[in-house]
């Protein structure tokens, strides 16, 4: 579960960086 949360956070961060 923790790994999944980190994975989701990492994906969101990447998307945000790409969007910005």
Furnish the topology, listing elements before pairings.
Elements: H1 2-19
Report on this structure.
With 20 residues, this protein is mainly alpha-helical. It contains one helix and no strands. It starts with a helix and ends with a helix. The model has no long low-confidence stretch (mean pLDDT 83).
Short description:
The protein has one helix at 2-19.
Total strand segments: 0
Largest sheet: none
DSSP summary: helix tally = 1
Question: How far apart are the first and last residues' alpha carbons, in Å?
Answer: 29 Å
| Shape category | rod-shaped
List the main descriptive attributes of the protein structure presented here.
1 helix, rod-shaped, 20 residues, mainly alpha
